[in-house]
Amino acid sequence: xxxxxxxxxxxxxxxxxxxxxxxxxxxxxxxxxxxxxxxxxxxxxxxxxxxxxxxxxxxxxxxxxxxxxxxxxxxxxxxxxxxxxxxxxxxxxxxxxxx
Length: 99
Known about the structure:
Elements lengths: L6 E3 L14 E4 L2 E6 L2 E6 L2 E4 L7 E2 L14 E4 L2 E6 L2 E6 L2 E4 L1
Antiparallel strand pairs: 1-5, 2-3, 3-4, 4-5, 6-10, 7-8, 8-9, 9-10
């Protein structure tokens, strides 16, 4: 799975947590929050952008995501990720990528 870079999200004066009004997305050992079309997470007193650094295809994915597929849809930049088995998938060139 792709690792995220340590890119600090500056100027973030909102504290994320239960009931904060933003979609919480489980991601490996932490929780990402959808805010302004991107995802970020708490880290050492600030928030980091939580974005993949490499193209990592999710192999053997036989489920097609879309409206009504049963998985939570998360707006992410110019596309939609889907929460599946505790991680995010994004459709890309006929397959799904780990996000």
